[in-house]
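Co-fold these.
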Amino acid sequence: MMKMNNIYKIALVGLLTISGACTTGDLEPSTEQNKPVEGGIATVGNLEGVLKGAYSRMTGSGYYGRDYIVTNEVRTDNCFSNGNSGRFTTQASFTYDANTGYFWDDAYRVIASANIIIGQDISVLTGDLDYAAHLQGQAYAMRALAHFDLVKQYGQQHAGGTLGVPYVTEFKGDDLFPARNTVEENKANIYADLEMAFQLMQDAYFDDSREFMSKYSAKALESRVAVYFEDWNRAVSASEAVINSGLYSILPANSYVSSWSSTGNANSIFELAFNPADNLGSNSLGFIYKTGIDANGDPIGSYGDVQVIDEVIDIFDDADVRKDILGYEGTLLRNLGKYPNLQGFDNVVLIRYEEVILNYAEALFETGGDALTEINKIATNRGLPAYASVTKDIILDERRKELMFEGFRFDDLMRTGMDIEKYSLQQNFAATIPYGDFRLAFPVPTAELNANSNMVQNDGY
Amino acid sequence: MGYATATKEEVTGSTVQLKAEAIEQVPVASVDQVLQGQVAGLVFNNTSGTPGSATDIRIRGISSITAGNEPLYVIDGVPVVNSDVNSTTSGSSLSPLASINSANIESITVLKDASATAAYGARGSNGVIVITTKSGRSGKTTFNFSSSYGFANDATSGPDPLTAAEREELFYESLFNTFGASNGFSREQAQAFYEANVGSFGSDYLNWNAAGRPEANWEEVITNKNAPVQEVNFSASGGTEDYNFFTSLGYFGQEATVIGSDFERITGQLNFSKKFSDRLKFTTNNSGSYSYQDGLLETSAYFSSPRSVKYFMPGLDQPYNDDGTINLQTTLPNPLWIAQEDIDDSKFTRILSNNALEWDIPVEGLRFTSRVNIDWQVYNYKRYRNRISGDGASDNGYGWQAHSNRVNYVFQNALDYRLNLTDDHLIDFKLLQEYQENKYYYLEADAIAFGDDGLTNLSSAGTPTTASSFFNDWKVGSYLALAHYSGFDGRYVLDATYRREGNSRFSDENRWGDFWSVGGAWNLHKMNFLYGNDAITNLKLRGSYGVTGNANIGLNQYQALLGYDSDYAGSGASYPQTFGNSDLTWETAKSFDVGLELGLFRNRITANVGYYRRESQDLLLDVPLSLTTGFTSQTQNIGRMENKGFEVEANFQIVNSEKFNLSIGGNMATNENEVLELALDPNGVERTITTTTTRIESGQPVRAWYMPTWAGVDPATGDELWYVDGEGSATTSNFNDANQVYQGGSALPTITAGMNFHVDFAGFFLDANGYYAGGHKVYEEWHRYTNATDRFSTQFYQGIDAVLDRWQEPGDTGTRFGKFEYTARPWQRHSKFLYDGDFLRLKNLTFGYNFNPSFLEATGITGARVFVRGTNVLTWVKDDNLQYDPETPADGFTALTTPPVKSWIFGINVKF
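Predicted complex below.
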């Protein structure tokens, strides 16, 4: 009996010892939410997932979800920051420094995702390989757009220099410490990527939701880039390609205001998707552009830092439907009509047909073409009478009114060599910022400079 | 001591032990709070005074830059998980230790050097805190009842906000300074200028004057004065030769010193031990607890946090309407309404079951022990934001609920063998095998648009917005061999430890690490030349050297992974989440420790002096990457860092008699931290890690304060000035021209000390102990809002009264603030807001009476005590400008969290 007992004990000890032992393999961690990058993309569907991830990165509040658009409005004659929550006062007063966060990191994250797609050998994937090429086309267009946005904000072209930004074309490539390319090099790379995008994308995959880029999104972007760099002939041909596709149309006056709370409108060439389940909430455009008024007329309490300068209402003709985008909360002039949902449920349109028409009009004006017809397509669809003649100022004014609050104004002032004029007490900066001032190029973030000694800071920071 | 037990003479390492008596008297939610001031070299930081909050403990400095610096916690021989259980980073933290009843603890031992921690080798770099729960004692069953009740208030009141009248005056002054010259009005006419231009400047002051200038005191509104603290414990202990038990039931409740927050805990413990035979013994220690924390949004300056309201809400806004209802038209959400309507509840259930079987194998000196420990943690979080006012108003109500559970298993098998070479030479061997696995599951959902007021569960919400779940795990396997030699009548003691440990945080080629230590002690008082010396009771020289490790980094960092917690246009999306590094392996630390322990006159006087040096290498460092890679950093094994210092402890029993005892004691420790090496980029340039206030660079302490140096106020213009390149260089009024420079020191104290005093006479006793930390600097956060000389303090938010010391007219010299202007400046962090962190705090003061057992005999009571205890009664702060509580979180930034509390507790303890 005693012996049996001992055998039982020894068996128990043996069992317990085994339960405590382990090998290297036993220590393998679970990865239930993740897949390795290596081998994680095996199908065209996987590739599309990464592409959606890249779009999702564009929707972040640091980039097109809010900051990029707002920063380009509060530094102009359109808007200022009333500092209600302490947001955007730094940008609006041009007092940013290398520690002020902006979208450098956000844009390069989009580029990293795009480069995974571009660098993928699609011939090894299972699925519709034509569609895979179409996805790669979108990634090229996205990479061009992100670099274009970067060079506009961080490049030295309006601050007396020639340096642009590093043009990154590989995910985890050989050069992890890139130096800055010149603005000219950036421009060439952007055009090349847009041409590649146009070539790879196919008409058959036109996306009616407009939440994904299509073939002519690349051409529309090209017209935007060409106008920015004053490559007028390229702007004409790119715009014409979009117009001749027949896929898009100018919204009529009666649906202009309502279009901002609906999706996939006829004028939309590309828009970022937001909805009640996927939105930025308190970090959205809606939350920063207004305070929100409840049924009793009391403020709801959103941030509402970004206010419209009082004088801006005067540039609109009473018959102009675009005036209805603006409105008052109490005595404060606001953007009430664009991105109207307070929680950011609305899609953010990045490229719309009216911009292409305006690009086209301006490029025609510069090259001696029929700009008047084009500008009147805008004016007459906004409740205004047709212009009898056209000047550059008329085109730029129409552009300001049409694209107000959408993040175009700062770039338009820059590319036309204008000062940032101090004309209202409300503007956060004290005196006119002359064209060429160092503050017109954003500082490269400190984190980049600390990690990468090949990086050069812009002058003045 | 966890794996092994040893008498004091036999210890070769640096350890400090706290016994039950010192622990159980302190009514705290989280038991680690009793360690402050008691252990030389232990730096204690409160993250918040909200009851149940996590604390930051650092032992002998900071050993790692990116990997964790938290010590390893061991309960009844088993390493446990001690990370914040709260699933929200915005709300109050909740420490797993808050689930442990301090009345059930027999001892807490802090292990500081390699010899002591090497048994836990792989994870012992940051020190080890060993908690042992009470076990039963054979004999007649004894009962212990204790109860205490008291009141708590903030230990420090913090800066005083401006009154509405002061704020108004400063506002007019800012208008005069900005527009007076250009618009042609005098200082006296500034109010008239304002009233003529309310369209541009807002009508706040106009309305306030019209209403008769009512002054609100928001500090009073948000304060829960004399917040009650209550604790009740009942325990029983007993047994026979065959078995013994300890069982207890406890309740702890504490209201926060701010409105709308409290903490409650119910605990039960059953420790049971039974001998099945002479050779087989079974022990089981089980505790169960349920904690409830009604928390706050407090980790940042959230507008709906009552602490933010105290400093951000102007006195112009009234808490109540004229009819007595809560005013909802306030600049920030009214905290009275938020406390009443919103919910931030954490519910935490924890069951710890530790079961051991000991078998004295029928071989002389050999024993086998097998232990299984289960730590089961279930956590529920509920957040609700009401529909009417506050953060949920724009959503028409917002709800969020999270559920998580964590299961942590430990299996241990150990063989102990005692080899008796002769009676004078003894070697103890231990072989141990351990496997630990942690599984964590998390589920959350949120929703908006609630159907009606007062309905706070997600089923009442119209629009679901998020549903998410995830699972992760980590695993640790290890083998330990330990030998302990004691010989020549205990004159010489030697320890050697070897541990091999594998961790799932590293790739399969780099998973295992080897750790070891050697230690020795020489008990000089047993040597012939001191033998028979009456004065010297104890004299021991000890030293140790060893290699310990740290693997405290995020999970799956070695793998280059795609993340899928993203979506676009209604479908799932993926993105590159981690850069990956398959070379990743253990961070190691080489620790050297030497000490001398002295006991004089039968240990009436004891002292010990020690020196340590710990060099961490192959740091698990988040090396900054160029942001153009799409990542911010990659975890690499690179860099070295050093911590060194002296530690002294001394105790004097001045009077030691039956009726009267008097003793004083104290400890002091220094710490010098220096980064020795960091990653380089291809040009050979060090990749420093720099923020607006700190920099990590070799040759400096880690996160040394690094910011522009303030140069005062220009007496002629009233502009704030800064040195272009640190003190002594040219000054500038353009902040962007002022370069960041080192300010000397970091947030880590270089000197800490504890002091204690005890006296008892005829049953009465008085205990006091204090804590000092110094040599570090702390930074006043949120000064852009509270210390602004612009619209932030006069129009948007609320300043503190420090800003009244400002420049007003040419010739004003020596003011701490420049002129007020009608503008809104960006964050400008500089040395004006960096203060000496030195402080001294009387942590505990206890006065009580022990009833003489002989008087109680007739009642059947064997012991009784009554006491009154004060906590954080007095605080001295070196720097007058440091108005917030000097106990900041470990990062050295003052926070708008609840400060530590000053409490007075009345208690009674009866044994029968």
